[in-house]
Specification:
Elements: H1 6-23, H2 33-40, H3 44-51, H4 73-88, H5 95-105, H6 111-153, H7 167-178, H8 188-201, H9 205-208, H10 210-216
Helix pairs in contact: 4-5, 4-6, 5-6, 6-7, 6-10, 7-8
Length: 231
Amino acid sequence: MSYAKGEGLKKMSDALAAWDLELQKPKESRKSIHAFARERNIPFTTLQMHITTDESKRIKLGNGVGRKCIIGTEQQGMIVDMFAHKERRNEVVNFSEALDVLEQMCPESSRKQLDQSLRRTVLAKVSTASKLVKKSRTDNELGTHAPASLLKLYSKKVHGDVSKLTKKEICAIALHYFGRRYKESSQKPALALDLRALISAQPMLLPSALEAAAAEAPSIANPSEAHTGSR
């Protein structure tokens, strides 16, 4: 449990207030710190770090336990953006390069300190940003692929048969025209079944998009030659 916010913060606040009252009792009738910590269901070490008389070691109420991050929020955001930018350009993410930038932004800290702080705090955000970039890239790729996939679906050869599309084509149509995101790694029969259900629920949506699809992918098929039924 975190004692820096939410329920944990209230629990610690109540405990510190109760401990102040405990200290006002005669020493012989006062509870020990260990007994008090057990009674409050707070780890002894955590409680001790909040009530120690040594101000240099005392954790102020609302602050978390552990080492303070030496990389500020603004610097963290810049590093995350740098990694995300490289990810978008399909460039290799260089950890050492990030440290070089941080050394310039945080000259008061050693490279070793920055390395430890970067690994402890920033890399999780970088991982999240990387996943978002990859997701966006996949969506864009499917969006580009969707018009040609739609024209193929309604071509004379495929004749509206969803099972004759590739998994990527099924996913492209589902995302671009219905706003439904499917995993390309899923089994094709399941993907085809889901797309058929979407088409059945809105039977006129795809036929009405044929002309626009032909304009976006004119070399694939002529919408006037496309079959407008589905099955």
